[in-house]
Design goal:
This protein is mostly helical. The protein has one domain. It contains eight helices and no strands.
Length: about 210
């Protein structure tokens, strides 16, 4: 695959994006101000779009494509089913199974948020990490680790995010389709909410909000 980034440039861009995200999570989000939240999201979105446009990344390279949608469904569905089953077994063995069907009402939100997170993980982060780390496993591991650390200090969410990101990044190398991976992300997020008690997952809060739950 063609390399669209220099090592130094990719490292700088990853640092910029992570700085913006951490600044929002740790400094701005605790204000619980709708206007601040909207401006922060728009600012991050603007920077992301500018970075992607700067390198003239083809949509197919970013995984924003439909030509491989059907071909990607089977392997991603198998992974999603396996991980969903593993989560249910874990919840049962752990004595933490707590079926909450009312969480299905939030399906629409996750169906929208899943592809956005996969775009940030794959199209923004993973593609740049590829320019920094030579080994395929190293690229996948580092991308998953960074994605996990964004969820600090919610340690259970960090662990789930790390395992999920490892698999999603591997699948992206084989089947680069953000929409299919986003659907998988949404279904697994929803599974976590449905089968685990909210206090275990810290109500999905990250940053200082995790301690104020």
């Amino acid at each position: 695959m063609r390399n669209y980034f220099s090592k130094r440039g990719a490292a700088i861009e990853i640092t910029v994006i992570l700085t913006l995200i951490y600044f929002y999570i740790w400094i701005l989000m605790p204000f619980h101000n709708y206007t601040i939240d909207v401006l922060a999201y728009l600012s991050i979105l603007l920077v992301v779009c500018l970075l992607q446009a700067l390198h003239r990344l083809p949509l197919k390279v970013q995984g924003l494509r439909c030509d491989n949608f059907v071909r990607s469904l089977k392997p991603v569905a198998i992974f999603t089913l396996m991980l969903t089953s593993a989560l249910i077994i874990l919840a049962l063995l752990w004595g933490q199974f707590s079926f909450r069907p009312e969480m299905f009402l939030r399906s629409g939100w996750f169906l929208a948020w899943g592809p956005i997170q996969q775009f940030l993980l794959q199209s923004l982060l993973h593609l740049r990490v590829r320019s920094i780390v030579n080994s395929r496993f190293g690229r996948i591991f580092l991308s998953a680790l960074i994605f996990s650390l964004v969820h600090f200090p919610n340690y259970y969410l960090m662990a789930f995010s790390f395992v999920g990101a490892l698999c999603w990044c591997y699948l992206f190398t084989k089947h680069p389709n953000i929409f299919v991976l986003g659907l998988s992300h949404a279904l697994l997020d929803l599974t976590l909410l449905v089968i685990f008690p909210p206090e275990l997952l810290g109500n999905l809060r990250v940053g200082p909000g995790f301690w104020s739950r």
